[in-house]
Write a structure and sequence with these properties.
Blueprint: E1 3-8, E2 19-23, E3 28-32, E4 34-35, H1 38-44, E5 57-58, H2 64-79
Length: about 80
Amino acid sequence: MALRFIAKDPDTDGANCPTVWVDEERQELLFQGWEADGETLADYLKTGPIPDGEGVVRLPMRMVAAIREACDAAERSAVR
């Protein structure tokens, strides 16, 4: 797996913060974020269950630009 680092949350100290990567080989986006709290999970579960091996993470809206960059990078790697 070759992860391409995209960005960390720009409004944090750079440690233990939401982060975005692209795995160009698997053509996947990877996100590190805060675990969803009980209230968020309850709302989320109204749309269906969370399968084993999956989870819900929270990312701040200020990371939209980084997520767009990751999407662009993933699309470019798929074209190669």
